[in-house]
TrEMBL record:
InterPro entries: GDSL, Iah1-like, SGNH_hydro_sf
Gene Ontology MF annotations: hydrolase activity, acting on ester bonds
Pfam families attached to this UniProt entry: Lipase_GDSL
SUPFAM superfamilies the record matches: SGNH hydrolase
Stated family: Belongs to the 'GDSL' lipolytic enzyme family.
Official protein name in the record: SGNH hydrolase-type esterase domain-containing protein
C-alpha cells in the first residue's frame, strides 16, 4: 500500500499516517482475505536484496497486526495466512547471471532454509490465532522438480506455481463454506493500475 495519500473511492479509504484501509458504507464487509507475505522479508542481510529484509520477529508481529486489524473490522471474516514459497538458490544464481553477467551476485540473496523459517513463523501465528493457513513452502516441495516447475527465476511463481496457490486457496475457502470462483474482486487487478496514477484505476473500478 502507498503511504498516506490514497482516497480510493467512496467504498474505500486510507487514513493519513495510519495503517487503515477498510470498507465504508457497505452493508456487508468482504467474506474473506488472504495474507501472502514473506518472500521479500526473508532476503538476507549483507547481500544484494538486504533493503527488503524484515527481521523474523518483526515479520511475525506485522502479520499479527494485519490479522487482528481485519478481525477487529469484521470478526466473522475468514482470514487465511499463506507462507512464502520455497526458494531455488541455483535458479536465482542462473537468473542473475543471465541478467547481469559478470556483475551478477556471487552468492544467493535468499536461501530456502531462511524462507522456511519465515514460513514456520507464519504457520505458528495461524495456530496461535486459530485461523487457517496454507504452507506453500512445504506444499510445493512435495513434488519432484518443483524448482523449475513452480519458480520462474528461483523466486517468482510460474503459471503452475500460481495454480498451486489458487488450488490451495479454493480448498481452504471450500472448507469454510465459501466458493472462491464466484467471489467478486474488491480491488482492480494489478495490471490495471498505473504506478504513476494509481487513483485512476480505483476510480474506474468503484464508479
Amino acid at each position: 500500500m502507498r503511504e498516506n495519500k490514497w482516497l480510493l473511492c467512496p467504498k474505500y479509504v486510507m487514513l493519513p499516517n495510519q495503517p487503515t484501509l477498510w470498507l465504508k458504507g457497505l452493508a456487508s464487509p468482504p467474506a474473506a482475505a488472504t495474507i501472502f507475505f514473506g518472500a521479500n522479508d526473508a532476503a538476507l542481510l549483507g547481500r544484494n536484496s538486504e533493503r527488503q529484509h524484515v527481521p523474523i520477529e518483526e515479520f511475525k508481529e506485522n502479520l499479527k497486526k494485519i490479522v487482528l486489524h481485519l478481525k477487529k473490522c469484521s470478526p466473522n471474516m475468514l482470514v487465511v495466512l499463506i507462507t512464502p514459497p520455497p526458494v531455488d538458490e541455483e535458479g536465482r544464481m542462473e537468473y542473475a547471471q543471465s541478467m547481469y553477467g559478470e556483475k551478477a551476485m556471487k552468492i544467493p540473496e535468499r536461501t530456502n532454509e531462511t524462507a522456511g523459517k519465515y514460513a514456520n513463523q507464519c504457520i505458528t501465528l495461524a495456530e496461535e490465532l486459530s485461523i487457517p493457513s496454507i504452507n506453500l513452502w512445504s506444499k510445493m516441495q512435495e513434488n519432484e522438480g518443483w524448482q523449475r516447475k513452480y519458480l520462474s527465476d528461483g523466486l517468482h511463481l510460474t503459471s503452475e506455481g500460481n495454480a498451486v496457490v489458487y488450488k490451495e486457496v479454493v480448498r481452504v475457502f471450500n472448507q469454510a463454506g465459501l466458493s472462491a470462483p464466484s467471489m467478486p474482486y474488491d480491488f482492480p487487478h494489478h495490471s490495471e493500475i498505473d504506478s504513476e496514477n494509481p487513483e485512476k484505476a480505483f476510480t474506474i473500478q468503484c464508479s
